[in-house]
């Protein structure tokens, strides 16, 4: 009984984007400028934009936070639960959140958004992320509810799973608002990962073992959008697996993207769908 309960518990933690908070940072009314430093730990901490709790951010803000891991070997992961920010009128966002990959205001942009679409999760390449929230004089909305945590590779970040024998971390994202194949790959890349591609039968079995109880049908990283009938990995240098890749009956016009049917117990549970269909997805990153 006990091992079963344990496995279900681990899986449901990975599956649901809800987290247990052991510590909450009260930054709600704080708009540091210049940037304030928040120390990330292995406990998830909340980062709310000013006014979020009352339902509206003030005009003319320019707040910045440096999220810094406990040590230089660690990475910071920022999760965005909710983000409601004035949408762009033309090409530029007047109000926006920008996440830079580093601790300086001049570090490369990892993500920048307004409106209601946003990254789910962003991972640093070094030990820091720089988060900036800027608003203009008009149209104040609710703002963002985010959280951050650090982890030290080769550990996987919170909410990611690993196979006992492998060198990768996996995450099945199953949001209420599902996404197209291209959007799924974009969301994986914010976390320095790609849509899942498989490198061996062992890895395939491990992934199915991790997620089959969920009976979901997530996008994975194969498509033949480039050359009809020739499936390729999202990272073109990775070979496809299995090498004798399924042909899906040869007539799958308009269905160029591969998803994984987690209920299939025999053989390989790949199937194809219109790339614009909205699905959950699995990201994979090397440790
Ligand atoms: C922020 O989101 C988390 C996760 O969904 C939730 O538990 C928390 O209550 C939210 N905070 C506020 C102030 O809405």
From TrEMBL:
<dbReference type="Pfam" id="PF00431">
    <property type="entry name" value="CUB"/>
</dbReference>
<dbReference type="InterPro" id="IPR016186">
    <property type="entry name" value="C-type_lectin-like/link_sf"/>
</dbReference>
<feature type="domain" description="C-type lectin">
    <location>
        <begin position="165"/>
        <end position="284"/>
    </location>
</feature>
<dbReference type="InterPro" id="IPR016187">
    <property type="entry name" value="CTDL_fold"/>
</dbReference>
<dbReference type="InterPro" id="IPR035914">
    <property type="entry name" value="Sperma_CUB_dom_sf"/>
</dbReference>
<dbReference type="Pfam" id="PF00059">
    <property type="entry name" value="Lectin_C"/>
</dbReference>
<dbReference type="InterPro" id="IPR001304">
    <property type="entry name" value="C-type_lectin-like"/>
</dbReference>
<feature type="domain" description="CUB">
    <location>
        <begin position="34"/>
        <end position="151"/>
    </location>
</feature>
<protein>
    <submittedName>
        <fullName>Uncharacterized protein</fullName>
    </submittedName>
</protein>
<keyword id="KW-1015">Disulfide bond</keyword>
<keyword id="KW-0677">Repeat</keyword>
<feature type="signal peptide">
    <location>
        <begin position="1"/>
        <end position="22"/>
    </location>
</feature>
<dbReference type="InterPro" id="IPR000859">
    <property type="entry name" value="CUB_dom"/>
</dbReference>
<keyword id="KW-0732">Signal</keyword>
